[in-house]
Design a protein that fits this description.
Order of helices and strands: EEEHEEHEEHHEHEHEHHEHEHHE
Strand order of the largest sheet: 7-1-2-8-9-10-11-12-13
Number of strands: 13
Family: Belongs to the organic radical-activating enzymes family.
Strand content: 15-25%
CATH superfamily of the largest domain: Aldolase class I
Distance between the termini: 43 Å
CATH architecture of the largest domain: Alpha-Beta Barrel
Number of helices: 11
Helix content: 25-40%
Catalytic activity: glycyl-[protein] + reduced [flavodoxin] + S-adenosyl-L-methionine = glycin-2-yl radical-[protein] + semiquinone [flavodoxin] + 5'-deoxyadenosine + L-methionine + H(+)
Keywords: 4Fe-4S, Iron, Iron-sulfur, Metal-binding, Oxidoreductase, S-adenosyl-L-methionine
Structural class: alpha/beta
Number of domains: 2
Largest sheet: 9 strands, mixed
Cofactor: [4Fe-4S] cluster
CATH class of the largest domain: Alpha Beta
CATH topology of the largest domain: TIM Barrel
Shape: globular
EC number: 1.97.1.-
Length: 305
């Protein structure tokens, strides 16, 4: 079967928080979840879209001059894109002299992406490698499978950051080609998970249970992002930890402190940030409180940075 290209919205080099050692992190476009606090809103849509960068705009209105019918509207001294427009926005990207209109992603085939990854392998050394993130990388599953195989053939350490919201058949295919598996379990309660992410948590929990009962369980790190008033509640943390300890008490678990800077990206993609912008990161004492909640359940392998 011929594998089509994958849409990638960012390639971050020299990453130090996406796995062991120095890494190259590849961000795949598209995600089935709609978390209210999403850190990468530019990766939500599975479509290639234009983005407007106000700081680069010289307000020449060439975008108006070169636009096609129903492609944009120009208000407040800036263009607004009609994302229902059936066609590309190449004409606007090419016409903009200030590079204020750009696409949010690039398409790569396996060879092209491997060339990008191999450019950095001199920095990987013994413990670094490549991490596939998103969005949700499982949404471009066949491409992910092939690129993982290609990395393993080159003896490049592979990691994934995923919600495991995808088909179990695909998950079974990619597991042998992964050296490190980060899985986000954000909210335990089913109703609350639906409210905050717009999808059910049942599949995610089923897939976590499958992997933690498999031969790959020691490659797994479960993570929960701590979002004030949403995921960062005593009940949620204890529920997740109890769920994990009942499957595999030795599983590695990490609580990720809140990142208050993500809202700046939302203006670029014309989305509303649904978290209070005044909320701050948790301090050391607050983080210790959450850590103790986890320890009380009997889960011992808590990763603390």
């Amino acid at each position: 079967m011929k594998i089509s290209k994958a849409l990638v919205f960012d390639i971050k080099r020299f990453a130090v928080h996406d796995g062991y050692g120095l890494r190259t992190t590849v961000f795949f476009k598209g995600c089935p979840l709609r978390c209210k606090w999403c850190q990468n809103p530019e990766g939500l849509s599975s479509q290639r879209r234009p983005i407007y960068f106000e700081n680069s705009c010289i307000h020449c209105q060439r975008c108006v001059e070169f636009s096609k019918k129903n492609q944009i509207k120009y208000e407040n001294n800036r263009p607004y894109f009609n994302l229902q427009y059936e066609g590309t926005f190449d004409n606007l990207v090419k016409a903009c002299p200030g590079n204020a209109i750009r696409y949010d992603s690039e398409a790569y085939d396996i060879k092209q992406l491997m060339e990008k990854i191999k450019e950095d392998r001199v920095f990987f050394r013994d413990d670094g490698g490549v991490t596939f993130s998103g969005g949700e990388p499982l949404m471009q599953g066949e491409f992910l499978y092939e690129i993982l195989k290609a990395c393993q053939e080159e003896k490049i350490h592979t990691a994934i950051e995923t919600t495991m919201y995808g088909s179990l058949e695909l998950i079974k295919k990619i597991l042998p080609y992964l050296d490190l598996i980060y899985i986000d379990l954000k909210v335990f309660d089913e109703k609350r998970h639906m409210e905050l992410t717009n999808v059910s948590s049942k599949m995610i929990k089923q897939h976590i249970e499958y992997i933690l009962e498999s031969e790959y369980r020691n490659k797994v790190i479960i993570r929960t992002p701590l979002i004030p008033t949403m995921t960062a509640t005593d009940h949620n943390i204890k529920s997740i930890a109890n769920f994990l300890v009942n499957i595999y008490p030795e599983v590695k678990y990490e609580l990720l402190n809140y990142n208050p800077l993500a809202f700046a990206k939302y203006e670029l993609v014309d989305l509303e940030y649904e978290v209070d912008k005044q909320l701050k990161m948790f301090d050391k004492e607050q983080m210790e409180h959450f850590h103790q909640l986890v320890y009380q359940t009997g889960l011992k392998n808590l990763i603390i940075e």
